[in-house]
């Protein structure tokens, strides 16, 4: 299962915090998937087949800080173990041209990941999408992550989406270590 984190609603479209939604939307579009709203799992979800395996794509409707509520409902509903879960989310510690895959570890201060960790533990894959850090020290973190991307950042992210999709295919085919070795060693996108 691949879950993209974000906040539901038009007000949050194209904001830094919704980059997880954007990336799973890209995958769904590539595979001609149709999203359905699933109130039981507090999500929009769809499914596809990659490398002979059924993959659930999901976007929680619980808002970022309660992402774990949706993730646990999805895991229960589809009998998914944490080791078969990948979560795509924004990361302010990475520049906009970077992606990083990891397992275990802490939330790094990300409230959505923190909520998931508190409910299922650390044994899931994280795909971190760099959104850069705020330049204005007086700007609140909440204001920064809810800000829309610049057009140049949008262009960079557009180029990263196929790479993340390839990373997910690697994850499915060869496991997390092989996928991490490829994704984390990739050259920086300019």
How are the elements arranged and paired?
Elements: E1 2-4, H1 19-30, E2 36-38, E3 43-50, E4 53-60, H2 67-78, E5 86-91, E6 99-103, H3 111-120, E7 125-130, H4 141-145, H5 151-174, H6 176-184
Can you walk through the features of this model?
It contains six helices and seven strands. The protein has 190 residues and is of the alpha/beta class. The protein has one domain (2-184): Rossmann fold (3-Layer(aba) Sandwich). The protein has a seven-stranded mixed β-sheet with strand order 2-3-4-1-5-7-6, with helices on both faces. Helix 2 crosses helix 3 (111-120) and helix 5 (151-174) runs antiparallel to helix 6. The longest helix is centred in the last third of the chain and has 24 residues, at 151-174.
Concise overview:
The chain is of the alpha/beta class.
User: In which order are the strands of the major sheet placed?
Assistant: 2-3-4-1-5-7-6
The fraction of residues assigned to DSSP E strands is 15-25%
From the spread of the alpha carbons, the general shape counts as: globular
When the domains are counted, the total is 1
Properties at a glance:
single chain, 190 residues, alpha/beta, Rossmann fold, seven-stranded mixed β-sheet, 7 strands, 38% helix, globular
